[in-house]
Amino acid sequence: DLKGYCDETRALTYGVLAYCQWAMGRKDEARQTAEAFEKIRDKVGPDYLTDIMNYYAFSGDAVHTQQIYDELEPLYREKQDTISDDYVSLLDLYSQGIGNAGRYKEAYEVLQRHNVLSDSLVQRQRQQETLQYAQQFQTQEKEMELKEKEAEARIHLIIIIALVAFLVAVIVFLWRITLAHRRLQDKNRQLFDTVQQLMREADERQQALSRQPQTALSASQQLYNRICQLMREEQSYTD
């Protein structure tokens, strides 16, 4: 496992280093680095071929570019991954590699495939972005609906609380009015009983005076008896 890890790390390093050396004009060193990569090529998987393919493509090594393309292209077809950024990058490197080697017609045909797939990727990306925006819009709509429902629920709760408070206030008000009415009734009853008691006492006094002889009464008592007799017999108070 450690040896395999070291080989993969060396392969990755060789692929990047060869391209960088070629870009800096150190072509002999780049060729030696590529040869070192080829010695361990069989020990690593296809994932490490793209970096070294950069060197082969830009250096015009059509043979190795073709070999790597022939090895990687079927893998993309097996995975049904021919509309992807990695596959488009593979076509781009392949067209540059064979174009730098003078195979212009083939390079042009590959470049046309590259452009078609690039356009497809752009359209798919736009469709994905549009779908994402639509999903975000739907999510925002749902969030707004939830917020509106929460606001409506709060308003309903406030209305219910206000109604309950109003009903409690009305009940308290009616209860206090009822208590006041009962107190007034009690006072009126007491007043009525007092008046009745006073009237009975007055009748008793008047009857006591009427049973006495007139000669035994004072002038004011005789006048009082006369007034009571007139009120009782003639009902002068109704005039």
Ends apart, CA distance between termini: 134 Å
How does the major sheet shape up? none
User: What general outline do the C-alpha atoms trace?
Assistant: rod-shaped
The whole-number mean of residue pLDDT values reads: 82
Poorly predicted runs are none
Strand content: under 5%
3D architecture notes:
The protein is mainly alpha-helical and 239 residues long. The chain contains 7 helices and no strands. Helix 1 runs parallel beside helix 3. The protein is rod-shaped, with a radius of gyration of 58 Å. The protein starts with a helix and ends in a 6-residue tail after the last helix. The mean pLDDT is 82.
Entry summary:
With 239 residues, this protein is mainly α.
Keywords for this entry:
single chain; 239 residues; rod-shaped
Q: What's the topology here?
A:
Elements: H1 2-23, H2 27-39, H3 49-59, H4 62-78, H5 85-100, H6 104-210, H7 219-233
